[in-house]
């Protein structure tokens, strides 16, 4: 299974239903059920179905990230000085449905990891502990 890493304040907006998407600088081919993972604690805080990605401009990407925890004046100054010929002129919205919050967050045990994604075996993650057999049969 794949988990999408994100900052807790954006993650909480998605889990509470305030937002139904996530803005990213890169596209992904991953679709289906994913875990929503706090990038600092590596806790799985919820799950969602990633159904699509939609190309957006970089200004929309910046505006998506403005929230109480983010300095909106700093963001507006950045928007006012954008050069849309930069490498990341295109950004993407990851569209979610069926978002659910975990009642008991668990800590993920990564198999593979990138800046954005964690690959893990969902069956190994129960209440933050990797499940192992005590005996080989």
Secondary structure elements and pairings:
Layout: E1 2-6, H1 8-15, E2 21-24, E3 32-38, E4 43-57, H2 58-64, H3 72-80, E5 90-107, E6 110-113, E7 117-120, E8 125-126, E9 129-130
Parallel strand pairs: 1-3
Antiparallel strand pairs: 1-7, 2-5, 3-4, 4-5, 6-7, 8-9
Describe this protein's structure.
By secondary structure, the protein is α+β, with helices and mostly antiparallel strands. The chain has a domain of 95 residues: Archaeosine Trna-guanine Transglycosylase, Chain: A, domain 4 (Roll). The protein has 3 helices and 9 strands; from the N terminus they run E-H-E-E-E-H-H-E-E-E-E-E. The strands form 2 sheets. A 7-stranded mixed sheet has the order 2-5-4-3-1-7-6. Strands 8-9 form a two-stranded antiparallel sheet. The longest helix has 9 residues. It starts with a strand and ends in a 7-residue tail after the last strand. About 5% of the residues have low confidence.
């Amino acid at each position: 299974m794949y988990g999408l890493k994100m900052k807790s304040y954006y993650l909480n907006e998605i889990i509470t239903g305030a937002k139904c998407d996530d803005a990213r600088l890169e596209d992904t081919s991953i679709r289906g059920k994913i875990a929503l993972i706090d990038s600092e604690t590596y806790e799985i805080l919820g799950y969602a179905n990633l159904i699509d990605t939609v190309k957006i401009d970089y200004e929309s990407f910046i505006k998506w990230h403005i929230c109480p925890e983010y300095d909106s004046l700093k963001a507006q100054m950045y928007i006012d000085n954008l050069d849309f010929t930069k490498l990341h002129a295109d950004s993407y919205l990851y569209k979610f449905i069926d978002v659910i919050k975990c009642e008991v967050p668990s800590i993920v045990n990564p198999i593979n990891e990138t800046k954005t994604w964690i690959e893990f075996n969902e069956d190994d993650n129960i209440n933050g502990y990797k499940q192992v057999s005590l005996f080989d049969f």
